[in-house]
Structure formats: structure tokens, C-alpha cells
Specification:
A five-stranded mixed β-sheet has the order 1-2-8-5-6, with no helix packed on it. A three-stranded antiparallel β-sheet has the order 3-4-7, with no helix packed on it. The protein contains 13 helices and eight strands. The protein is an alpha+beta fold. A hairpin with a 6-residue loop joins strand 3 and strand 4.
């Protein structure tokens, strides 16, 4: 069956028309395919743009009379979308269309045409790390297991999986849909959008330097014991991606580029959920941020900092006259993560979202949430597990004077013992506007300017030109 799109766009001497049919199985979600031809730029007279979650082959044709059609190209989609310029022709008045032909679904998605990978793999296995990362306490925060050490091939496979929409049941959502590279691998929306349009219950936290978290657990409520465990849960979640693991392994096994990549990584082409989890975990752990202004400052006694940034650094680490400030107590080391504790930061009482307490049912666990790294915090707004704060200024204001009394409030956020009736109450910092601005300025020095654009962490699929 052919669905007709009667609209025509005319530009210069060229008219565009198109037709389409999407062969989705009965009873399955049917995301609409979209096909369009728009005026081109430069040498191209037009650009054909295709969106098709089914990753089918579309045949681009031209005609002068809408009766006789000549094939221009067969366009294979590899991850839901494709665009290609149409070069000028000596024939005046050409019209174009893209059609779906069941008999033409023979172009495979191989590594050479589906992916844009470098000739030599990126270096994931041996990143250059600052000296402090190689000694305690950061060394002890490394959660990479000996059974899944990062390799270049494994992280490359994980990168492809991370960006592949095949991991969702209707092939419209990937891991990267909720963890955007440009946003420090977090989601700029308060709540992420699942495969069927539903919203997640929590904000998607940033992934940079996830390798260094001493507790080794993942999700805001730490319900995943390892990163390998975590990677498979959103795939199977009924709201986020809606897949089953058998359906996923069967789908990936049908793609030639995956059998090739799994062979390179594991020695055989077999695709299993365990191997998928390992590859995804390798890629996530490879997202290492060590090129921030702060990192440069560590090796130069912070001579590269402005006076405002240095003031903010002193406040953050409780130095000099700011010994009452406890930011570093929950965001310690040069990875800005906690040690062994999990914390309640006094957002509210009672908590709407009880965090760990919702899993255990224990009152002593209410409001306990994972403390993520502050690296690239400038990129990962909004903030907190529920994305309630839109800006770093709001976050600083909260910790300055907005912490709420709660039975489980973490000790660093309480007035220390020995202060009379105030002992144990929420700590009020009383920073001046200038000091708050300095603290925000310091937090922005944790931004790695390369992370948001580094090609080794970017989408590897071929979407045409």
C-alpha cells in the first residue's frame, strides 16, 4: 500500500513530490515516517530528508511528467534519519519523490556504510589521567571491575549502542536521547521523554567521570549494584525504552555491523545481554573529563584563576575564613564525589520522592540520594534528582539558606555539636551576594570545554551529508 502526499514544493525550475509507505508489523507502535525535499544550498538544488524508525531503504526517483520515473539513488537509513543533497541536472523541470519498495530492502547496514568510525580506533583504554587520579583516595573510587576493563574495541561498540535507537521498542529513543553530550551527558529537560511520550520520574544525571564513585552503585537511589547492571535497566523499563532483552539481542544480531563489532570486542559474533551491558559500561566509564580550567589550576597553584574564582575555590573547600562551609564534605577529591556515605541534603520534609527509602521502606533511608560528580556541572542543568533548580545560582542559594530540617539530614549540613540549641539544626552559611557569585564562578571552572564536542564520545552513525 502506498500512502500519498499530494503537497508539492516548487523552487527555481524544480518541483518536489514524494510518496511513502511504512511497513510496520500489525499491533506495533507506528511512528510516522516523514519525507521531504527542500530547496538546497551551495551546489545542491535540493535536499531530501527522510525520517524512518524502521531503517528501511528508500528509492529516490526523478521525473519530468509524474508518469515515468528514473531512479536517482537508493537511500538506506541506519539510525532513523538520513539526508542527501540532489545535484543539479541538465534536465529542466525535474520532480523528485522517495518511495518505499519492499523488493529493494537488500542494502545491509555494514560498518563501512552505517557508521563513521576512524581508521584507527580512538584511545579509550589508556586515557592520560592527572597524577591525583592514580593515587588514593581517587584510586579507591574507581568502580571499573577487573572482569570488564575498558578496551578500545569494547568502548567503540558501547558508543554505537549508546547512540542506537534500536535499543527502544519502536526505535525512536537511544541512551543518548536522555544523556546528551552537549549537556555533559545529562538531559536539559527536567524529566526525560520515553519511547511512547511518557516522562521519567527523575532528572537524568550527567555521566562524565561515572567511573569514579566509591560506592559503585547507580541511579539516584542506587538500586543498580554496578554500572553493568544499570545499563540494561532503562532498556527494559516500560516507560523509557520498552524492550525485552531477547527482542533486543535478536534485533541487533540481524545487523551485520553489530556482528562485526561484537567479534572485534569479544572474539565471536554472539550477541548477548551480558555483552551489551559490558560494552555500554565500558563506553560510559570512558567518558573522562580532565581538561577543565580547574585541572590546569591544580598544576599551576591556580595562577590561571581569576580573583573571583579563587575566592569561590576557598569557599568551596572551606579554606581560610570559610571553615564553616562544607561543600567538599560531600563533593571531595578532584572528582568532586563523596566517599562512602550516601546523603540526605534537606530538600524537603517529608520527601515526595523518598529515594533509597522508597526501595527499603525504612524511615532511616528517606531522602537518601546518590551524590554525582560536580564535573561539568555548568552543562548539566537542571539540578537535583527532580530537576527543581534551573541554575547554579539557585543551587547555591539553597545550600546557603534553604536546607530543610529532616531527621536524616546529613551531618555536614547541620550545625556542629557544642553550639547550644542550634546544634543539629540546618546550617545557614550566610554568604554575601559576592561570595555566592564567586562560588558559582568556581563551579564553572569544573567545565571541560572539550567534552561536549569530543568526537570519540559523539554519535557515530552515518546520516548522509
Amino acid at each position: 500500500m502506498m500512502k500519498q502526499f499530494p503537497q508539492q514544493f516548487r523552487f527555481a525550475a524544480v518541483a518536489a513530490a514524494w510518496a511513502a509507505a511504512a511497513p510496520f508489523a500489525p499491533g506495533q507502535p507506528v511512528p510516522a515516517s516523514s519525507l521531504g525535499i527542500t530547496p538546497g544550498t551551495g551546489a545542491n538544488i535540493a535536499t531530501v530528508k527522510l525520517t524512518d524508525p524502521g531503517n528501511y531503504v528508500w528509492v529516490l526517483q526523478s521525473s519530468t511528467n509524474l508518469t515515468t520515473w528514473t531512479e536517482v539513488a537508493a537511500l538506506k537509513l541506519h539510525n532513523g534519519s538520513f539526508q542527501q543533497g540532489i545535484l543539479p541536472s541538465a534536465t529542466p523541470g525535474l520532480m523528485f519523490r522517495a518511495v518505499y519498495d519492499p523488493a529493494r530492502q537488500t542494502i545491509p547496514s555494514a560498518v563501512t556504510n552505517a557508521l563513521l568510525l576512524p581508521g584507527s580506533p580512538f584511545n579509550y583504554a589508556a586515557p592520560i589521567l592527572p597524577a591525583k587520579f592514580l593515587i588514593q583516595p581517587i584510586l579507591g573510587q574507581d568502580n571499573m571491575p577487573s572482569t570488564n576493563v575498558i578496551t578500545d574495541a569494547g568502548a567503540t561498540l558501547g558508543r554505537v549502542l549508546f547512540y542506537d535507537k534500536r535499543l527502544s521498542t519502536n526505535q525512536t529513543v537511544s541512551c543518548s536521547s536522555c544523556h546528551l553530550q552537549s549537556n555533559g551527558f545529562s538531559d536539559p529537560r527536567q524529566f526525560s521523554v520515553g519511547f511512547n511520550g511518557g516522562l521519567t520520574g527523575r532528572n537524568s544525571m550527567g555521566l562524565s567521570n561515572a567511573r569514579w564513585y566509591q560506592r559503585g552503585k547507580f541511579f539516584w537511589d542506587e538500586r543498580a549494584a554496578t554500572l553493568e547492571d544499570q545499563t540494561l535497566r532503562p532498556i527494559q523499563d516500560s516507560l523509557e525504552m520498552g524492550m525485552t532483552l531477547p527482542a533486543l539481542t535478536n534485533r541487533l544480531a540481524a545487523e551485520p555491523f553489530y556482528t562485526n563489532l561484537f567479534t572485534q570486542t569479544f572474539g565471536t559474533p554472539e550477541i548477548t545481554s551480558e555483552r551489551i551491558a559490558k560494552a555500554l559500561a565500558q563506553f560510559v566509564r570512558s567518558i573522562v573529563s580532565t581538561q577543565s580550567k580547574y585541572d590546569a589550576g591544580v598544576t599551576s597553584s591556580f595562577a590561571n584563576f581569576t580573583a573571583q574564582e579563587n575566592l569561590g575555590r576557598q569557599i568551596f573547600f572551606g579554606q581560610s575564613t570559610f571553615s564553616f562551609v562544607t561543600c567538599a564534605a560531600c563533593h571531595g577529591t578532584d572528582n568532586f564525589v563523596p566517599g562512602t556515605p550516601i546523603n540526605n541534603n534537606g530538600l524537603e520534609n517529608p520527601y515526595v520522592d523518598k529515594g533509597v527509602g522508597a526501595l527499603t521502606g525504612q524511615a532511616v533511608d528517606e531522602g537518601l540520594f546518590k551524590v554525582p560528580s560536580l564535573r561539568n556541572i555548568e552543562l548539566t542543568a537542571p539540578y537535583m534528582h527532580d530537576g527543581r533548580f534551573a541554575t547554579l545560582e539557585q543551587v547555591v542559594e539553597f545550600y546557603d539558606s534553604g536546607v530543610v530540617a529532616h531527621p536524616n539530614l546529613s551531618p555536614p549540613l547541620r550545625v556542629p555539636p557544642g553550639n547550644g540549641a542550634a546544634s543539629g539544626t540546618p546550617l545557614v552559611l550566610g554568604l554575601t551576594p559576592q561570595q555566592k557569585a564567586a562560588l558559582v564562578a568556581f563551579l564553572k571552572t569544573l567545565t571541560d570545554p572539550n567534552l561536549a564536542t569530543d568526537p570519540k564520545f559523539s554519535d557515530p552513525f552515518n546520516y548522509g551529508n
